[in-house]
Amino acid sequence: MFGRKGELHPMYGKPPSAETRAKSRVTQGTAIFVYSLDDTLINSFNSVNEAKKFLNCCHRTIKRYIDTGELFRNRWIFFFIACLDRRGPGGPKNFNNSRG
Fold first, then answer.
1. Correct CATH for 30-92 of 1.10.3210, 1.10.10, 1.10.150, 1.25.10
2. How far is CA 14 from CA 1, 6, 7, 9, 95, in A?
3. What is the tens place of the pLDDT at every residue in 21-51?
4. pTM score > 0.90 for this model?
């Protein structure tokens, strides 16, 4: 297969299967985890792109909220990693919880 380009390549003109595309999204994407104020996991996404489509916002917005640790729409907080306690390891260092 090495060196075969264009029409000589066995996969030329064949789109990747749905299974292959799903595997690619998981391995190449950055997982996003969305938590509510009461530390409940609301949703998880395989990539920022999936999250932006679901939340109807720009990918830059999601990345900014992850970087700053601020609440998104005053309801949710985003993480790159799943955590049992969002204020513990892996949680944002500057998260200000207004519940007291």
1. 1.10.10
2. 15, 12, 11, 10, 47
3. 877 776 777 888 999 988 888 999 988 888 9
4. no
